[in-house]
Specification:
The protein is mainly α. The protein has one domain (2-47). It has 3 helices and no strands. The chain has helices at 2-9, 13-41, 43-47. It is elongated.
Length: 51
């Protein structure tokens, strides 16, 4: 288990940055799909307090 942490700590900077960008893309897609689902169901209006 300790070797996994050491491998991550010694990974090249470009690999770490590329994985960070990919993680950000997945988070952004999840937020976009969540927003689209809320808007299409009408729940968005109630959550904003205008329902």
């Amino acid at each position: 288990m300790e070797s996994v942490g050491l491998d991550k700590a010694h990974a090249p900077t470009t690999t770490t940055l590329a994985l960070a960008v990919v993680a950000g893309v997945y988070i952004s897609l999840g937020a976009a799909f969540s927003t689209a689902a809320m808007a299409s169901t009408g729940l968005f209006v109630y959550l904003r307090g205008q329902g």
